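Hi support team,

I've been running sequence recovery on a batch of backbones for a student project. Most finish fine, but this one hangs at about 90% for roughly twenty minutes before it completes. I'm not sure whether the input is malformed or the queue is just slow. I've pasted the structure tokens below so you can try to reproduce it. Let me know if you need the job ID as well.

Thanks,
M.K.
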């Protein structure tokens, strides 16, 4: 062997044109952020609350923001794993009949990860402004939590099917 720091060319790693990922031996990663946004939008857009029309109406508009990481990794050409750790912000709109004004808000879901169970998700519901209409519509949107959770479980199955 060459002595330490002797710069023997036999031991130096050189960039080689033929040194590509031969036989898929090394890790390959594919960013799934765009796919996740599209899939979540398809699952969660225009989700109605079922609120009595005499009182008002509210519905989930869809994905407002999606942050975090979503990656599909492949090792040795055939071992595929999906990894994601996301924070999802959904927007909602509605109108309370008594005030006859448009009300907007958000639902923020954190801990949306490959290793999380639905009961681990952290939920934050908010409405712009204050008042009876905002409180009632926010409560109606909170009533969508089981439906949203069901769609998030479906999303988890869908991303696993990519493997």
């Amino acid at each position: 062997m060459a002595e330490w720091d002797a710069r023997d060319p036999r031991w130096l790693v050189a960039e080689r044109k033929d040194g590509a990922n031969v036989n898929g031996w090394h890790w390959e990663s594919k960013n799934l952020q765009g796919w996740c946004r599209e899939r979540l939008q398809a699952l969660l857009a225009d989700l109605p609350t079922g609120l009595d029309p005499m009182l008002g109406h509210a519905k989930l508009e869809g994905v407002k923001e999606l942050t975090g990481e979503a990656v599909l990794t492949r090792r040795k050409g055939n071992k595929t794993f999906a990894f994601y750790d996301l924070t999802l912000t959904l927007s909602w709109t509605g109108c309370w009949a008594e005030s006859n004004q448009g009300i907007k808000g958000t639902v923020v879901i954190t801990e949306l990860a490959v290793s999380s169970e639905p009961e681990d998700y952290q939920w934050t519901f908010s409405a712009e402004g204050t008042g009876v209409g905002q409180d009632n519509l926010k409560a109606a949107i909170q009533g969508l939590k089981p439906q949203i959770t069901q769609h998030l479980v479906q999303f988890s199955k869908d991303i696993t099917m990519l493997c």
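--
Follow-up from support: It reproduced on our side and the slowdown came from queue contention, not your input. The domain at 25-161 is CATH 3.15.10.20 (Bactericidal permeability-increasing protein; domain 1). No action needed from you.
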